[in-house]
Design a protein that fits this description.
Order of helices and strands: EEEEEEEEEEE
CATH architecture: 3 Solenoid
CATH topology: Pectate Lyase C-like
Number of domains: 1
Distance between the termini: 24 Å
CATH class: Mainly Beta
Strand order of the largest sheet: 1-3-5-7-10-11
Largest sheet: 6 strands, mixed
Radius of gyration: 12 Å
Number of helices: 0
Strand content: 35-45%
Number of strands: 11
Shape: globular
Length: 111
């Protein structure tokens, strides 16, 4: 599913059974949810939940990570604990760790 307009506060987009590609900003108070991966080619300031049906291989990609909440297959992290400086406001990938632990990894993308 491709969305080419900004997602405003209060809006919720759900990509059932597929990936979600957002070509504009996800504002604070907005939610993007996908059973697959989420790609945001702008600032991600709202909530992003990938792997909504339990897909532990799902990932979230954003060109500017400023999210209120990120979640992969129900494992989540909020912005209450500040994101590391190497990802805050920068191109970032979010995924689950490969070691079997339910831990989110936030890694800078080298563009």
């Amino acid at each position: 599913m491709v969305i080419d307009k900004p997602i405003r506060s209060g809006q919720k987009i759900y990509a059932k059974g597929c990936d979600l590609i957002v070509l504009s900003m996800v504002n604070r108070g907005a939610e993007v949810v996908a059973d697959g991966n989420i790609h945001v080619y702008a600032a991600l300031r709202g909530k992003a939940m990938a792997g909504a049906k339990g897909n532990t291989k799902a990932r979230i990609f954003a060109l500017a990570m400023e999210a209120e909440l990120v979640s992969i297959a129900g494992v989540y992290r909020t912005a209450e604990k500040p994101f590391a400086s190497d990802v805050l406001g920068k191109a970032t990938q979010v995924r689950l760790s490969d070691d079997g632990q339910e831990k989110l990894l936030m890694e800078p993308l080298k563009l």
